Amino acid sequence: xxxxxxxxxxxxxxxxxxxxxxxxxxxxxxxxxxxxxxxxxxxxxxxxxxxxxxxxxxxxxxxxxxxxxxxxxxxxxxxxxxxxxxxxxxxxxxxxxxxxxxxxxxxxxxxxxxxxxxxxxxxxxxxxxxxxxxxxxxxxxxxxxxxxxxxxxxxxxxxxxxxxxxxxxxxxxxxxxxxxxxxxxxxxxxxxxxxxxxxxxxxxxxxxxxxxxxxxxxxxxxxxxxxxxxxxxxxxxxxxxxxxxxxxxxxxxxxxxxxxxxxxxxxxxxxxxxxxxxxxxxxxxxxxxxxxxxxxxxxxxxxxxxxxxxxxxxxxxxxxxxxxxxxxxxxxxxxxxxxxxxxxxxxxxxxxxxxxxxxxxxxxxxxxxxxxxxxxxxxxxxxxxxxxxxxxxxxxxxxxxxxxxxxxxxxxxxxxxxxxxxxxxxxxxxxxxxxxxxxxxxxxxxxxxxxxxxxxxxxxxxxxxxxxxxxxxxxxxxxxxxxxxxxxxxxxxxxxxxxxxxxxxxxxxxxxxxxxxxxxxxxxxxxxxxxxxxxxxxxxxxxxxxxxxxxxxxxxxxxxxxxxxxxxxxxxxxxxxxxxxxxxxxxxxxxxxxxxxxxxxxxxxxxxxxxxxxxxxxxxxxxxxxxxxxxxxxxxxxxxxxxxxxxxxxxxxxxxxxxxxxxxxxxxxxxxxxxxxxxxxxxxxxxxxxxxxxxxxxxxxxxxxxxxxxxxxxxxxxxxxxxxxxxxxxxxxxxxxxxxxxxxxxxxxxxxxxxxxxxxxxxxxxxxx
Length: 769
Fold this sequence. Notes:
single chain, mainly alpha, 71% helix
């Protein structure tokens, strides 16, 4: 056999096997070949053959050595036999190893251990357990090494009950107190969540060493309900003069993450610095970064990353995830770009996080480039990377995202949630509900995010039947202990207009937080129950809940409808005392509330005092003047908007056109309409057309108004048709009016089907100035 060896620095690498030989090892290996090809090989001693077997990495030469063992009469030698077994196991030649073992089978524990260790190192865990049972049948006893390697195989295979049987055997032979056996038992029980049993195993070990203490610390660190015990064990370990090593410290960092204990995590870091442990170790430094980030000190995580001498893909991935979870997607993307410039080959996790950062940043071109890189490099995306791609494309091309989602084989709850979220962001609410139904049908267990998404879709559609169905499903599966889900159910019932069901869910809650109370307030307002909304707000004040801007906006809506200017002033004072005076949404609601209460002067004063005005602020003030019939001020504000480079939207033009229509300013209104279409390229909506029809009718241009209505689709001409018929009745144009009543009936039926309601006019006489 020709040796296939490459010179590499001071080492020799055997191609295809990933074995690194030193020059001395290579010399020994060359000696094997030489001796086997000469008659001198007949005089090889058992020690020489054993040495040759240690460095043998090829099947052909191994078989030659095996033949020479027979020639030299060493086939029954346990020492040589154990080496031969290990070599066959290392090369995964199970049939040959079984044959060898059967020829030299004996009661020698060392031979059995060699066989089991060889199988374990080769990853043949099932074979280890089979041979373990064979050993028990021989009734020659068990050693600590046999028990230990068999337990490790059970752990790797997830064979918990087999492991408990081995524990019984260990107890019979008084091996349960052995440190290595004890460590493996601790890992077996802790990996299966049996921490009480793991603790009992630890207590049975009288003279625990560093390995045992590290094992129990690692076990406690996995669970947040007992992670504090990891630090207690570490303290008692130091009292026994046992110094933690790198593995111990990594486990303690994991315990700090479970507890969110930044102080303890810093203490571990300080100890490592003092003792010089792990400061140049990539695993330890990556664990430090992870701890600082998850315990709330992301700045320190960034500093550790910057000072690392050697950065592997794992450390880059950790830092990219840190930035993503901090909401700093741009930094995450720049870090990925820097990594690529340093010629560090990314793994699938790196690429998935890079695509995710592009999705958050709306970087479609860059995200597609990364996807193209994966295709060119022949990298097949796993479920994590596929989920990131679905997230990216759902923001730009939901059809492509849906196609990619459908092509996935095994889907988990995360990718279902991402697809639902994509449909929600594209106003495809029924599609989102269908994805949830598919998820349940495919027996993928929904999580909290899944229920929040589907309830959100139902609330947009105001689908009461689906709301009750999901509510019943949640009751059966005991998901109503989650506060977020309960609050979303309340919001969904309220949005559907079924306050009776919303109240039932709300009243059953033991703890009523700000979100649930605000959802109820919004529901009362949507259903026209403004007094109930105000009463609930008073109860919230008694409970000393920290009110936010959403709650106050809802309260102002209720007060403005009832025309309670005095109460609005109270809320105004409360806003400034509660330091919410800078919340634009609250100030905008105050402007609207004062205007509806008849105090346009206070509304104007608020608007003029604002240092930062958003578009909603301008719209609120324009609408305020419009509802007071002051169209001249509306047009002045519109001109001021344009001079201050504020771009109007559909709502702005709706308020202006409505004001012009109600004030009879025909030419001004038509000019505003032309500005909207020609200068700002805004496509008119139904309300815009209704205002234009009204303006044309007021100008006596009924034929033009009629032609405009005829050109509109049925979904956009209902309000315009009503405005035209009213104008015809007013101006006694019976020719146009005649024969249109069927269309009127058809439009009214359509508005009922889609849930539209006619809001009657009303007048408030305001007494409290």
